[in-house]
Amino acid sequence: MARHPSFGANFREYFPSSRALFSLAWLLALTSPGWPVEALPVREIAPGVFVHQGRYEIFTPRNSGDTSNAGFVIGRDGVAVIDTGGSPRVGAGLLAAIRERTKLPIRYVINTHMHPDHVFGNTAFTGENPQFVGHAKLPRALAARADRYLAINRELLGEAFEGTRILPPQTLVKDRLELDLGDRKLRVEAHPTAHTDNDLTVFDEKTGTLFLGDLLFARHVPALDGSIRGWLALLDDLATRTDIKRAVPGHGPEQMPWPAAIAAEKRYLTKIADEVRAMIKDGRTLAEAAKTAGLSEKDAWLLFKEYHARNVSAAFAELEWE
Amino acid sequence: MTTTSIKRTRFSLALAGLLALGAGVAMGMGASVPALADDDPWKDIHRDVFDNREISENDGVVELEAPYRAEDAAVVPLTMRLPASAGEVKRLTLVIDKNPAPVAASFVFGEAAGKGDRMLQTRVRVDTYSNIRAIAETADGKLHMTTKFVKASGGCSAAASKDADEALANLGKMQIRTFTDAQVKDHSPAQREAQVMIRHPNFTGMQMDQVTRQYTPMKIVQEMDVARDGERIFKMEGGISISENPNFRFTFAPGAENVIDVTAKDSDGKVFTASSAGKAS
């Protein structure tokens, strides 16, 4: 605030008495979050494109829900935020990182899908009055899971959960939507069921950067909460795009070269699909598949134990209908 | 005879009450209130569903296989086995103590279930760490139980579809699969194996719409009658604890044609039928 030129010039006009100033400070202290807001570390991976890399962990009170990647793009007229982290605290840290770099208004907060580690930071941005943007199916998906998401993550996150509310988007994307930041346009695309039934990608035309949300996992084992067939089909489709220069995964490094970025994930999903299909054909059961399918991928990923058997169960329940 | 039929009526009433309980709990007080750790609901279930009748435990009549830790609480695979030595079993009841509606399903067996080594598999939702019980009622009216403890959480209230549009678009679609002998483990006397799947969201009625603050109405498969060549294998009465896209895999006594026919009914009164006739069996 102090750096704002017009504020400094008009200081006495607005606050003729120091008492009024004191009241303002007191008011700010009351309304600000009860923890020191530290800006999250972010890296500028392309001109005006910033990414914060989350940890390869599941939610714990220690990581405050900082377990997924979040990013922002600064244009001439405003800022677009892509995912907000897994708690209001992480969201506030992301906002602080933005404010260290620009005072431009935050026009858009885009959620790539419904999972808590990508949407729970939304509340930190309400004061900026952005348009919240999401897949047309995101509000329904959040509504169906809200109670559970709130209950389970209150336990997992502890203090960092404070203030979490589920904020569904008002700007819905059914197919595609162009967001104008002045000198650059972001292309938001809604996809058919893949990682979830409400996945969005965000493409910055100026730098050829594609934010994939959790359609792309690297090092962190992929998590299947949608359709394995849909996901594999979408990866094949995206791999043919020549306008993409770099990819930002939902979990993984800040940026990855395209299309090499998807190779490991595609191998993993293909292996599960192949092995599960073979087991179904042999008359084996879901319980057997959950214990044995895809285990050769074990050493290739982090958090394998946490997600793999569930992925196999989900794939089995889907593929047995083929 | 009279005594038996009265008992059966009381059983059915109690069962219907417990199957429906979940919706009431959800409407009244919210779904995600966990049961206290030391609060054992089995006493009440034993009284309400089984009339406090004596139950023999782990006597080899019924076996239950369940994962100790469920990977996905919304899809917990369970296998129940009735060895040939169990003799005729009239009914098999599946109880998940701490679920909002503890009676997950009840299976009444018919002639075509056979009397050899019998197997029945399904997938259930488990809402919190809970005992799961398989209770068999033999022809002599005695009850036999095996219990397994399963660590899972959130199966009922987290039971949202992975693809909500597809779940409704394909509602009622069924798939019947019979397994060739090579795929079936040795059974004595000879048994065949089949699987029946039905596309159904099996909404628990516990998912709150955040905009309207209303719970999604319960929409579940309540009954499923499965026959081989016109003879009943089993009839299932199910509650909200059965997973989305209910799935049953079971053995049956071989017949002349081995055609499997299924009639299912859901809580909206919709009736779905399917037959394996015309398919290789």
Biggest beta-sheet profile of chain B: 9 strands, mixed
Q: What is the helix fraction of residues of chain B, given as a range?
A: 10-25%
Radius of gyration of chain A: 21 Å
Helical run tally of chain A: 10
> Level of helix content of chain A?
25-40%
For the terminal residues of chain A, how far apart are their CA atoms? 59 Å
Largest interface: A-B, 36 and 41 residues
What order do the helices and strands come in, and which of them pair?
The complex is a heterodimer of chains A (322) and B (281).
Chain A (H helix, E strand, L loop, with lengths): L4 H5 L1 H4 L3 H14 L11 E4 L2 E4 L17 E5 L4 E4 L5 H12 L6 E5 L5 H4 L11 E5 L2 H20 L13 E3 L2 E5 L4 E6 L9 E5 L4 E9 L10 H12 L6 E6 L4 E2 L5 H19 L4 H7 L11 H16 L3
Parallel strand pairs in A: 4-5, 5-6, 6-7, 11-12
Antiparallel strand pairs in A: 1-2, 2-3, 3-4, 8-9, 9-10, 10-11, 12-13
Helix pairs in contact in A: 7-8, 8-10, 9-10
Chain B lengths: L1 H28 L12 H9 L4 E3 L5 E3 L10 E7 L6 E8 L6 E7 L8 E7 L5 E9 L4 E8 L13 H6 L4 E5 L13 E7 L9 E2 L4 E2 L5 E8 L2 E8 L8 E6 L7 E7 L4 E5 L6
Produce a short descriptive summary.
Chain A has 322 residues and is α/β, with parallel strands linked by helices.
What does the model show?
- The complex is a heterodimer of chains A (about 325) and B (about 280).
- Helix content of chain A is about 35%, strand content about 20%.
- Chain A is of the alpha/beta class.
- Chain A has two domains: about 1-30, no CATH class; about 40-260, 4-Layer Sandwich (Metallo-beta-lactamase, Chain A), CATH 3.60.15.10.
- In chain A, β1 and β2 (about 50) form a beta hairpin.
- Chain A is globular and about 60 Å long.
- Mean pLDDT of chain A is about 90; it is low at about 1-20 and about 25-30.
- Chain B has about 280 residues and is of the alpha+beta class.
- Chain B has a single domain, classed as Immunoglobulin-like (Sandwich).
- In chain B, about 15% of the residues lie in helices and about 35% in strands.
- Chain B has three helices and 17 strands.
- Chain B has a nine-stranded mixed beta sheet with strand order 1-8-7-4-5-14-13-16-17. In chain B, strands 2-3-6-15-10-9 form a six-stranded antiparallel beta sheet, with no helix packed on it.
- In chain B, a hairpin with a 6-residue loop joins β4 (about 90-95) and β5 (about 105-110).
- In chain B, about 45% of the residues are buried.
- The interface of A and B includes residues 151, 152, 166, 227 and 312 of A.
